[in-house]
Structures are given as C-alpha cells and as structure tokens.
Design brief:
The structure is a single chain. With 140 residues, this protein is α+β, with helices and mostly antiparallel strands. It folds into two domains: 2-48, no CATH class; 55-138, 2-Layer Sandwich (Ribosomal Protein L30, Chain: A), CATH 3.30.1390.10. 57% of the residues lie in helices and 15% in strands. It has five helices and three strands, in the order H-H-E-H-H-E-H-E. Strands 2-1-3 form a three-stranded antiparallel beta sheet.
Length: 140
C-alpha cells in the first residue's frame, strides 16, 4: 500500500514537471547564479572602497637655540621614540638642517606640528626664546 502511494506521488510530480520544461540544467543555473553574485560583489567593492587619505610629513627644522638633550626629550615625549632613535634623528637634523620626524594623515600631522610648537623653550640655553620650528609637507 505504501509503495503505491509513493508511486502515485512521484507520478503526479513528474506530470507537473513536464508542464514546465527546463531549458538549462541545474549546473548551468548554479554557474549563472554564482557569476551574477560575483559581478555584484565586484561592483560593490568598486563603489564602497574608501579612498585612502594622503600622507603628510612632519618636518623638524634646525636652529642653534636648542640642545640635543632638549630635542631627544621632546621626541621621546611627543612621539614615543626611544632615546637611541631620537639621538639618530637629532644627528640627522644637525647635519642636514631638517629631518622628517613623522609621516601620517594631515590632521594628525597638524596636531604633531602644534605639539612641537607648544613644547616650549630649552631651559638649558639662556638665549633660547621658544620652541623648535616644524612644518608639514605632503609625503611623496
């Protein structure tokens, strides 16, 4: 009895399926669906990809009114550099007249420049009138 009921159901399903002939195979349908999904993903990536912000260098300018100790202390406090790295930057500043001390986004570069300007005078030199000078430039 159960076999005849099952056969009847299968027969009915097959008759209904004959009314809707399939022009593509299941594999072709799946491939088409996957291709469409990938195309949508590519379009979404192109549209939603955020633009990278341009980078800026914070450049410290040399003068004769600040000591190595002042410069090393400032670089350690404001930029978190080690004493050794700060010393290397100080030597480069002394020999070349300018040194890049940070490369970052424009907003952060402006903030770091302002921190350098606000660091204050070098108390070790009496003629020192203020902080060191720094500028920001677009990174190349």
């Amino acid at each position: 009895m159960a076999d005849s009921t099952f056969r009847d159901r299968v027969t009915r399903v097959l008759k209904i399926a004959e009314q809707f002939p399939m022009t593509t195979t299941l594999a072709e349908s799946i491939e088409t669906s996957i291709a469409k999904k990938r195309a949508v993903q590519r379009e979404t990536k192109e549209v939603c990809r955020p633009k990278r912000q341009p980078f800026y260098n914070v450049v410290l300018l040399d003068d004769d009114d600040h000591t190595y100790d002042y410069l090393i202390d400032m670089l350690r406090k404001l930029f978190g550099y080690t004493t050794e790295h700060a010393y290397k930057l100080a030597c480069e500043l002394d020999s070349k007249g300018r040194v890049i001390i940070d490369t970052t986004t424009k907003e952060r570069a402006e903030f770091k420049r302002d921190q350098v300007h606000a660091f204050g005078r070098d108390w070790r030199i009496t003629r020192c009138q203020g902080s060191m000078q720094s500028v920001i430039e677009p990174a190349e």
